[in-house]
Amino acid sequence: METNTPVHHWNSKQMIFDATGSMLSDEKTDRLSTLLWKIIEEAFEFSAKAHEKDGGKSILAGDSLYDFIKKRSIEELQDEQERETLLQMSEMWGAYVGEPVWKQSLRFAWMEECCGGEEMFVASDYSAIFGRISKTAKEEAKIMLGKKVVSVQTEDRSSGKQVSVTCDDVSTDQFDEVVMTTPLGWLKTHPNCFAPPLPPRLTSAIDNLKLSQLEKVFITFPSAFWISDSTTDSFPSYTNWLRPLYADDTNPHHWPQEIWNLASFTPPHNHPTILFYLYGDCSRHIVNAIYGKPKQEKHDFLDKFFFPYYSRLPRFDLENPSCTPKAILATEWLKDELNGYGSYCNFQTGVEEADKDVETFRDGCPERRLWFCGEHAAPFEECGTVAGAYLSGEFIGKKIVELYSANA
Ligand SMILES: Cc1cc2nc3c(=O)[nH]c(=O)nc-3n(C[C@H](O)[C@H](O)[C@H](O)COP(=O)(O)OP(=O)(O)OC[C@H]3O[C@@H](n4cnc5c(N)ncnc54)[C@H](O)[C@@H]3O)c2cc1C
């Protein structure tokens, strides 16, 4: 609000295509979606209660959110076909956490009960917000861009020695305190960056917390052919193609697909664009297929892959030039070293103490003048988010101020 960043509130309408590519009725969509979210809420509660009782140990580390939904669907729905549809709908969880719903730890599902407050989508970009939050740093600090940290050498605080940080241009600088904001994936792939090595508990936290693979694909058309009335926000914000059985040549694993309608933003921020969210193996398949390829080859691959879905949108007509993509942009976080080759941390089945792992990051190594922040060190309900990454930095900043105030 303070930065006047335009935000959008998605309408609550959704459109769901079943595995054969037929659209579900509005009645079924609403009823099953309401039931699904009720069950997910119950799973959060179940997980939170177990956490309070015994740190979650009464839930097996291997149990997943999917197991919970499956069990509850049998109790809630008589019709086997509807149960199957509900389970397929539950796969949308993957686009929140970046990996399939059957990998979501039930023991730590409570840590995914996200954010609270109003849900908004930034309809333009983050530049004004970045400008605001970086103001003090830009005014007061010396910022060195365009180089990568390759090693961090620490001594015991009691020695009075500073931390040495070496970059890929072989420059080394000394600091009183170092706050590492490199992503979890970077920490996973650069274990030898720290000398001496990080303490075992921190090393195991880096290992225990898994990284998910969320990617986005934007497809822009000459005009938003799927919308019949552009004067009202009446088209569903969200469209979901459940386990498609009709695209075997491009999607033999039947990965579900989903889009958000970016044509619904208030002008001038609206675009004739649909935004696909990909996760897990589907993300890896797409990025591996396009990475390093010439622009036209990428376009052709992506168009072929997504055609079975966008061609099922209302008003699609092969003969109409408005229905042929004008441009396609796919993220390739999987291949980005500075992004840690992934999206963000998630709490997968098998993890024993995800909460303690996050706390371990937050504790850092003050005895070595070394601290950690980022989405993986965020308050529990904000892990994996931009707000969480910001709050984690604020938290460490306060801790350092406290330390210096106490020693003043
Ligand atoms: C597809 C996708 C969709 C998402 N959607 C949402 C959403 O809707 N809402 C939401 O809140 N969050 C969302 N997120 C998550 C959000 O983007 C992250 O949680 C957040 O950006 C993490 O911030 P961070 O500061 O921890 O890490 P980053 O934003 O990754 O910042 C780390 C910084 O460290 C730098 N760096 C890395 N290695 C080095 C090095 N060796 N030397 C120097 N610098 C280095 C990088 O260049 C980068 O600038 C999404 C993420 C993805 C991938």
Automatic annotation (TrEMBL):
Q: Which GO terms describe its molecular function?
A: chromatin binding; flavin adenine dinucleotide binding; oxidoreductase activity
Annotated Amine oxidase domain ranges read: 49-393
Q: Which Pfam families match?
A: Amino_oxidase (PF01593)
> Source organism's superkingdom?
Eukaryota
What processes in GO biological process is this protein linked to?
chromatin remodeling
Name assigned to this protein: Amine oxidase domain-containing protein
* Record organism: Rhodocollybia butyracea
